[in-house]
Design a protein that fits this description.
With 324 residues, this protein is α/β, with parallel strands linked by helices. The chain contains 12 helices and 12 strands. α3 crosses α11, α6 packs parallel to α7 and α8 packs across α9. The longest helix is centred in the first third of the chain and has 20 residues. The structure holds beta-D-fucofuranose. Beta-D-fucofuranose binds next to α3 and β9.
Length: 324
Amino acid sequence: MTCNRRTVLKAGVAAAIVATFGSVGPAFAAKPLVIGFSQVGAESEWRTANTVSIKDAAKKDGITLKFADAQQRQENQVKAIRSFIAQRVDIIAFSPVVESGWDTVLREAKAAKIPVILTDRAVNVTDPSLYVTFIGSDFIEEGRLAARWLLERAKKTPDATFNIVELQGTVGSAPAIDRQKGFAEIIAGNPKLKIIRSQTGDFTRTKGKEVMEAFLKAEGKKINVLYAHNDDMAIGAIQAIEEAGMKPGKDILVISIDGVRGAFQAMVAGKMNVTVECNPLFGPQLMQIARDVAANKPVPKRITVQEGVFPAEVAAKEFPNRKY
Ligand code: GYE
């Protein structure tokens, strides 16, 4: 008797669930996906936009995001990844601050059967099966595009030589290594274009300004071009150039990468000449890939983000369209 009543009751509850959710299966199966994400830090406008894009996309998709800020330190990222493994998240995603030194911790993730998605920056590992996929930009190509802009510009003044100072990104990071490589490849063998100083500014405004001050002290008016691996360093350097009594964008050409709003403002003000776009807004794409990986669907090993080049001439027109 009691047994029967319970059966009826159960059937009633199931019917109510079916009525509410359409079918019994998904209502019970819909456990939110949990992603552990280790971010590089908050070093630049680009990074801030990237963090917002990832957090917003997770929220919109009902994905639980465990977010850890590594403050530009690899050991913090290793700790965060180990804690994600201990918490048994469904997916680990991270933007590696530097390229090397990841084998051990990624082997631990693999042993725990937690798939790893790389975002933005690549790693140098001996076993590519340690991560499922990498979504990010082609940094070598960005460096090439920056140099090609300068080559075109140099054609306008065939007799001039261009002494270049380079502000590099974080030492050992994929964007610093590749942006240097791509740029060097294009100017190689051209006697008019010469890098006279190159030093890291760690992708920040403060360091960009400091290092540019040192460049100016050492080389002064010999400097014709600044090539910065990101906009924030370029914006810091612009201040240093102005404080040294020179005109950024005129006395010293300013070439940079990212395409953040601050760069567009600098171009509109005539203080920067060109920025090569590096798109940080891949949060929605990352969530889609995470869902595919969790569902065991095949995903490409390399997913490249599309981007453009924006010279100062188009800055005012493009500025209202910029989303970061
Ligand atoms: O260009 C820079 C940031 O890894 C692509 O990191 C990213 C770079 C970006 O700090 O602004």
